[in-house]
Amino acid sequence: MDDFGGEVGVGQTRTIRVPWDAASVTKVRRAVVTDLRARGVGAEVVDEAEIVVSELVANALRHAKPLGDGAVRVHWKVKDPVVEVEVTDGGGPTSPRPAPPSVWGQAGRGLRIVRSLAHEWGVQDERSGCTVWVALGGPSRRRTG
Q1: CA distance to 4, 88, 119, per residue, from 141 (Å)
Q2: DSSP for 43-112?
Q3: Tell me: the pLDDT tens digits for 6-52?
Q4: Calculated CA dihedral for residues 45, 47, 53, 58, nearest 10 degrees
Q5: Which of 20, 32, 89, 142 has a Cα-to-Cα distance from 26 of 20 to 30 A?
Q6: What are the beta bridge partners of residue 19?
Q7: SS (H, E, C) 9-31
Q8: Which residues partner with 131 through β-bridges?
Q9: CB neighbours (10 Å) of residue 65?
């Protein structure tokens, strides 16, 4: 069991909900890394997932609003060698997209980093919120419309 009440490394999928708080970025990162390592996922994909989930949760906290229960949802699925990660928030004023490159910009690199690490990635805007998904280690099993 981990801090979120789930068994580490068990099953194909895992979902956690964390409070709408900056400290949640670290908690989610640790949970994902611990779970993926327990599943025997390759070190490179674990490292990529660590960076991606940190960026996605931080972006949700910075640019969107929480889900109805005041949380952000993080879901991941492992189908060797592919790891799919989803971060769902309550949506924001715009749809997530990488910022244009800027030499002097202090921010705006998060989704460009995600895009550079991902095999595939996308955004699903829904009435209840927004989900950014990423496939690492190979192509996604999902189809985008």
Answers
A1: 26, 18, 12
A2: HHHHHHHHHHHHHHHHHHHHHS---TTSEEEEEEEEETTEEEEEEEES--SS---PPPP-SS-SS--HHH
A3: 778 777 899 999 999 999 999 999 999 999 999 999 999 999 999 99
A4: -160
A5: 142
A6: 71
A7: CCCCEEEEEEECCCHHHHHHHHH
A8: 88, 124
A9: 17
Residue type for position 77? K
Q: Name the phi and psi angles at 129, rounded to 5.
A: 160, -160
Contact 85, 49 (CB under 8 A): yes
Q: How far apart are CA 42 and CA 128, in angstroms?
A: 34
In terms of Cα–Cα distance, which of 4, 105, 142, 118 is closest to 55? 118
* Adjacency order of strands within the sheet including 82-89: 13-19, 71-79, 82-89, 129-136, 120-126
Rg (CA), the chain: 14
Distance of CA 86 to the CA centre of its chain: 5
What phi and psi values does residue 26 have, to the nearest 5 degrees? -65, -45
> Do 123 and 132 touch, CB atoms closer than 8 A?
yes
pLDDT digits (tens, 9 = 90+) for 60-92: 999 999 999 999 999 999 988 899 999 999 998
